[in-house]
Structure formats: structure tokens, C-alpha cells
């Protein structure tokens, strides 16, 4: 005979354990889902997607029973806009993935940021699939080339944004360049004036030196000319003094002849 009382205890224990684990797992999943839903989305609301869905499911206007049909060209343009925004978001996801993994591995950021990123990555994958299906609904095999056209549009938008940024900075850079050119011109003119003044001072010094040397040369030449007659008189005096008796003798002889 089976001892049901002895088996009831472990069976009850196992039942309580299984029920506790199931309850904990259910509560943990609900809490995780609610926490993930309460997290701030990685990207802002997809405006292009909302516009496309609004045009696709446009309600009939008041007073008309027939639904308003939006032309396919408008819907295709809206779908291309939606795909272009998806391209931008996909590029942002790819650029941030490596850095975010490094930060998570180092513990620099919390797990909430990782959950937000994973949810955004999953959303962008579903969005790309939805765009491909919508494109194939408009035209066969258009889903294979819709993102190529969207990529070209995204690059065109980036180029236009860059050109607009450069044009907005052109006035500021022009003012800066004019100011720098004016400062450079003023500094150059100051240096030129200083060089002219230095050259004029050097020229005046050279002229003063030339005039002083000319006057000194003129004085040295005039002094020997003035001293010439004096030297002749001295020589004559020396001659007279040296030959005094002879001169005197000749003069007395002449006087004697005259008396005779």
C-alpha cells in the first residue's frame, strides 16, 4: 500500500516551488516589459512614417461617401521620404553600436541604455522590412531599389545642408577676412613709414658727414695757400741776412761810382 501521506509532503513542496517560480517569472517578465515600455525611445517619433500612413489610410471628407484616393505618385514620394529617414536612422545605429558596446563592457553606462538601443535596432529592422513590402506593393521589385534611391536623396540632403551651413558662415568669414586684411595693411604701412623715416635719418647723417668732410678738406687746402707768401718772405729775409755784406758791398760800390 502506497504511503500517500509520506508522498504528499514532497509533492506539495514541488508544487509550491513550481508555482513560486512561475509566478516570479511572470512578474519579472511583466516588470521588464513595463520598464522597457517606459524607457525613452532612442529616436524621436517617425514623422515621415506617420505622414505616409495618414495618406495611405486617408478618411473620406465630410459629405462624400466615396473614400478620398491619394495619387500613387504622392504615396511613392511619401514612401521615399520615409525610406530616407530610415537611412539616416540606420546610419546612426551603426555608428553608435561599437561605442555603446565598449561603454557597456566597461560599465560606464547602465543597462537601460543598452535596452533602449536594442529596442531601437529591432524597430529599425522591422521598419526596413515594412518599407520593402510597401514598395513591392506599388511596383514589382521596387523594394530592391527603393533604398538606393533613398540613399541618393539622403546624400543630396546632406550636401544641401552643408552648403547652407557654409553660406551662413560666409558673411562671418568675410567680415573676419576684411578685418584681418585691414590690420595687415595698417601694420605694413607702419613698417613702411618706419623704414622711410629710418632711411631719411640715414640720408641726413650721410649728408652731414659729407658736408663736414668737404669743409675740412677746404680748410686744409686754403692753409698752405695763405702760408706761401710768408714762406717767401722768410726765405728772402734769410737770403738778405745771409748775404748782407755782399749786398751791402755792392751798394757801397755803386754809391762810390755815382759820386765819381
Describe the structure in your own words.
The chain has 260 residues and is mainly α. Among the domains are: 9-38; 42-59 and 70-170, no CATH class. It is 85% helix and 0% strand. The protein has six helices and no strands. Helix 3 packs antiparallel against helix 4 (111-138) and helix 3 (72-106) crosses helix 5 (146-242). It is elongated, with a radius of gyration of 58 Å. The termini are far apart. Residues 221-260 have low confidence and may be disordered.
Q: What is the N-to-C succession of helices and strands?
A: HHHHHH
Shape, principal axes of CA atoms: elongated
Distance between the termini: 216 Å
Low-pLDDT residue spans: 221-260
Helix content: over 70%
Number of strands: 0
In DSSP terms (H or I, runs of 4 or more residues), the helix count works out at: 6
Mean pLDDT across the residues is 77
- Nearest-angstrom radius of gyration? 58 Å
Helix/sheet category? mainly alpha
Largest β-sheet summary: none
Indicate the proportion of strand residues: under 5%
Region (Disordered): 200-260
Pfam families: Sec66
Biased composition (Gly residues): 241-251
Transmembrane segments: 6-28
Kindly list the characteristics that best describe this protein.
single chain, 260 residues, mainly alpha, 6 helices, disordered C terminus
Short summary of the structure?
The chain crosses the membrane at residues 6-28. Residues 241-251 have a biased composition (Gly residues). The chain is mostly helical and 260 residues long.
